[in-house]
Fold this sequence. Notes:
Low-confidence stretches: none
Strand order of the largest sheet: 1-2-3-4-5
Amino acid sequence: MYDIVANRRDNRLRIDLTGRMNAASIDEAADVAVEEAEQLRDGFDIITDLSGFRPPSPEAAKPIKRAQQHLKEMGVDRVVRVVDEETSEVVVNAFERRSRDVGYRGEQAGSLDEAERMLEQEQIEGYAD
Length: 129
């Protein structure tokens, strides 16, 4: 399951992924993420909550990377991924590897509140190369 919302006031995209999603759901979520991001200005940030997400099937990798590429091209600045002790390292590593492949790195936070605080801090160089 997913919930994806663009907040134009904060220029921020919020992506919540939960459970084990099949390839069709991941593909749909990737499209929605790009559509929502179209409402934002260049230099937008993303918070991706992976704390309830379970490793998807291998075929889900392509739509995730496709969305990351589009978001990079659209002008993403910082990406913070919310993870907790239950979040699979497979998920964390897969998201980071694919984002590096398209030209940016993500930061990690232990909660949504922490992610918000991180993005309110001063800009950090090098996340969207």
